[in-house]
Design goal:
Layout: H1 4-11, H2 13-18, H3 22-41, H4 45-59
């Protein structure tokens, strides 16, 4: 894949996200969740597992 967004994310995700503002990271996270929710509703079994992992990770965040 030649998309610079995907290449940056796959090559060094920590550096990629460190370069984004918080609002940009939030927008990406929300968009990803919407896509996963839609795919889950359409019967994508992998999307359901990904959603569960996201919800589990969010539940374990300490503020």
């Amino acid at each position: 894949m030649s998309n610079p967004f995907i290449i940056g994310l796959k090559t060094n995700p920590q550096l990629f996200f460190n370069e984004l503002d918080t609002i940009e990271v939030q927008a990406i996270a929300q968009a990803c969740l919407r896509v996963l929710e839609t795919r889950h509703k359409e019967g994508d079994i992998e999307a359901a597992g990904c959603l569960q992992n996201v919800y589990r990770d969010v539940a374990n965040i300490e503020l």
